[in-house]
């Protein structure tokens, strides 16, 4: 986000936000198409493969979606193994404010712990107060903050990217060994 007093800054910021949204939607559509070709609940062997779950009633529009993969948590030092990483969690606008996001997050946590034997769940969120409040009130802790990365006229990542981790029994010991 650029705020330098230039009257064109608002226009530029709107264009960047629209462009980022279109890139994100395109990437999600592509990954969802790949997931539907070979659905599996097995723990993936690399971050190249994701588990995607689309929630909808039969014959209705989707109301929620999440994507989960395994990868090394960014910026947390070396880890002996990858952990579950929540790539996306979305709730349809018409269904927000009813606790569906919290229920999806709980489903992701339970699945990560039981089916993939994860002992932590990592994720990130950009400047989205509703998402941050959901994760913060669900026991997630800020692990790293990043500012927007500018490259010439392009924003490479959103401002205020935050990496979060859920609390777990042995995470503090793991963090102190890896940093």
Automatic annotation (TrEMBL):
MF terms from GO for this chain are:
acyltransferase activity, transferring groups other than amino-acyl groups
Q: Does the keyword Acyltransferase apply?
A: yes
Where do the N-acetyltransferase domain residues begin and end? 18-174
Q: Which Pfam families match?
A: Acetyltransf_1
**Matching InterPro entries, A to Z?**
Acyl_CoA_acyltransferase, GNAT_dom, YpeA/RimI_acetyltransf
Q: Which UniProt keywords apply?
A: Acyltransferase, Transferase
PANTHER family per UniProt: ACETYLTRANSFERASE, N-ACETYLTRANSFERASE DOMAIN-CONTAINING PROTEIN
| The protein's name | N-acetyltransferase domain-containing protein
Give the species this sequence originates from: Effrenium voratum
């Amino acid at each position: 986000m650029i705020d330098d007093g230039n009257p064109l800054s608002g226009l530029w910021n709107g264009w960047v936000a629209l462009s980022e949204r279109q890139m994100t939607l395109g990437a999600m559509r592509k990954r969802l198409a790949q997931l539907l070709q070979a659905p599996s609940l097995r723990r993936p062997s690399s971050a190249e493969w994701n588990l995607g779950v689309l929630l909808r009633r039969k014959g209705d529009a989707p109301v929620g979606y999440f994507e989960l993969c395994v990868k090394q948590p960014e910026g947390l030092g070396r880890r002996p193994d990858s952990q579950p990483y929540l790539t996306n969690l979305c709730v349809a606008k018409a269904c927000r404010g009813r606790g569906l996001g919290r229920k999806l997050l709980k489903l992701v946590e339970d699945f990560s712990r039981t089916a993939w034997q994860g002992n932590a769940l990592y994720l990130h969120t950009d400047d989205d107060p509703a998402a941050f409040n959901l994760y913060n009130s669900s026991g997630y802790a800020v692990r790293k903050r990043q500012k927007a990365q500018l490259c010439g006229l392009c924003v490479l990542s959103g401002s205020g990217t935050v990496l979060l981790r859920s609390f777990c029994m042995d995470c503090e010991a793991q963090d102190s060994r890896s940093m």
